[in-house]
Amino acid sequence: MSDFREQINSLSPAEKAELLDTVWESLEADAVLLTDAQRAELDYRIARHEQKPSDVIPWQQVRAGLFEKP
């Protein structure tokens, strides 16, 4: 793996950006397809967030709650 990192580090910023773009596109191509129910749930959550974007819980608070002992 370190050889791979060395190869990446030897790239120019433009080459790194191109590599990143290529990797990102390959991830999109490999994406798991959602079921209709999953898509509907995501659409519902996005719409709900767009209606009231301030109604969120900060990640730090969520994370802290995960590790609280009952």
Helix content: over 70%
Question: What share of residues are in beta strands?
Answer: under 5%
Order of H and E elements: HHHH
What is the count of structural domains? 1
Backbone structural class: mainly alpha
Overall mean confidence score, pLDDT: 89
Based on DSSP secondary structure assignment, what is the total number of beta strands?
0
> What overall form do the CA principal axes indicate?
extended
Biggest sheet: strands, sense, closure? Answer: none
Radius of gyration: 20 Å
Q: Number of DSSP helices? A: 4
Through-space gap between termini = 41 Å
Please mark out the parts with pLDDT under 50 across 5 or more consecutive residues, or reply none. none
Summarize the structure.
It is built from four helices and no strands. It is mainly α and 70 residues long.
Salient structural properties:
70 residues, mainly alpha, 4 helices, 70% helix, 0% strand
Question: Can you put this structure into words, describing what you see?
Answer:
- The chain has 70 residues and is an all-alpha fold.
- The protein has one domain (2-66).
- 70% of the residues lie in helices and 0% in strands.
- It contains 4 helices and no strands.
- The radius of gyration is 20 Å and the shape is extended.
- The model has no long low-confidence stretch (mean pLDDT 89).
